Amino acid sequence: MNIPTELRYAKSHEWLKEEDGVCTVGLTDFAQDSLGDIVFVNLPQAGDAVTAGEAFGDVESVKAVSDVISPVTGVVKAVNDALLDDPAQVNADPYGAWFIQVESVTDTEALLDAGAYEAHCAEEG
Amino acid sequence: MELIFERSRPGRGSDLLPPPDVPASPLPEAHRRAAAPRLPEVAESEVSRHYQAMARHAFGVCDGFYPLGSCTMKYNPKLGEDLAALPGFTGIHPLQPEHTARGCRSVLDRAGAYLCQITGMDEMTFQPAAGAHGEFTGLLLIKAYHVHRGDTGRTVILVPDSAHGTNPASAAMAGFTVRSIPSTAEGLVDLEALRAACGADTAGLMLTNPNTVGLFERDILAMTEIVHAAGGLVYYDGANLNAIMGVARPGDMGFDVCHLNLHKTFATPHGGGGPGSGAVGCKALLAPYLPGSALGGGGGAQSIGQVRAFHANFLVVVRALAYLLTLGNTGVRQAAEGAVLNANYLKHRLEAAGYSSAYPGLCMHEFVLTLEQLKKQTGVSALDLAKAMLDQGMHPPTMYFPLIVHEALMFEPTETETPETLDRAAQALEALLKTARENPQALHAAPVTTVIGRPDETAAARRPVVRYGFEEG
After folding, report:
1. How far apart are CA B378 and CA A47, in angstroms?
2. Which of A26, B110, B118, B309 has a 20 to 30 Å separation from B324 between CA atoms?
3. Domains of chain B by start residue, with CATH
4. How close A94 gets to chain B, by Cα (Å)?
5. Nearest to A64 among B400, B457, B462 (CB)
6. B-chain residues within 8 Å CB-CB of A65?
7. Model's pTM, two decimal places?
8. pLDDT by residue (tens digit) across B300-315?
């Protein structure tokens, strides 16, 4: 399983990359593997507010629909519209297929580093 | 197999309709279509063979064991079909004067009275066409109740995380915000989390009891009390009523409104054989808001309005009434007891065969296995096992639901299965478990006896083909 060391992780299986005050959020390799083939992605729109710990979108796989939780509170700067037409990118390249970029971040969930996230995944099986 | 469009030949057809014997009266130009509809042109004999072939490729309750959890695929007595086919029921018109349709009115009244007796509700409407439609209708009643009291701040519906997916969807459709309540490790609603989630914005709680993992919510009285104390109402999802009918009543547990799936619990055709009926019952406090119909009552000044044309799926109600009259008071209770007994018997047999239950102990009418360990050890998933069951002449159980159980398989045998059928199913599943450990590849390849093995579900969801691709020109 791929867990890049430069990213931080939420227990609900989102990854977060912070660069110049902008947070990029996506789903982890573990999440895409557990969900199976993803067939739909619902995303917010640029300008929407997101709240740490609350759903900002959802993904649908052949098994189930799952919420995607925002690790930060802020305003959506950009969304990766390409996922709407080609949700398979989430399975093929989970760390390239980002969901949203958030700016004006005022709050961040307690996040895990790669080592702690790997232990968390092992616990969840 | 050939599609009906592929059997079509220009000019071929049937002489079912005689030539018109009145002058043709053309539609106004604006309403005429530019080109003829491309309907299949097929002889009656070919149509018959087409549908017969489809029936052979399908699997119904009359083909074999059908333990599709949460769906209550019980046997539908043929007597119900005979009664629903009586010309007095099939030959009426929804707009004919009420005094010429008193038999039909009596069916609705009697079925409503019996179902009120079974659920502990005061009024019943047969307008909703299916379960989710019933949920939507029930939620509109809850909304109307709060709004008519001027209590407009109640915008949140609470839903346990084990709920049927239709619950949050119906709540969202009715304009509510959904808040999820976690389950305990035992598989029951977390009372403290419920208490914490209740407040001035609580419109109501949606709950099914027994819940989706087949357990009876023991603290149900405390739960309904918590929600009522916060000013909310409580909705009973009747999907699992088969476990308790004739034994316990949602109305006595504190529920204010419920829907029933007549097509599950009351033995009317289901799945592709519908249509369904999502009858909604409510306590007197919600009765003023019920949708109305000319024969069904209701429809006063505060009504939410009709939710379905005329009297909805009336012939389904005829079948349900036939079922109730056949069983009688004691039979209804026996059916529920049989459903619970069969589920516990099969659960016990499968546990003895080496399967892991998601929740140990006694269950109600259904139970959930988890194949999480098996998948780790052998790579065989719940999907593989479900597919392999098809080769054994059984319909698979519900898979990957509820979402709180990993690699879930949810079995609901229903009361209409014999001990021999349950024994055969247990033996077949024991053999499949052995195969999973010795030759997992065989299960990845299953099913091998069906017309279609493993459809590409991903491609079907990503690029659905929902109409016939005519060759243009």
Report:
1. 47
2. B309
3. 80-322 (3.40.640.10), 329-449 (3.90.1150.10)
4. 17
5. B400
6. 165
7. 0.89
8. 889 999 999 888 899 9
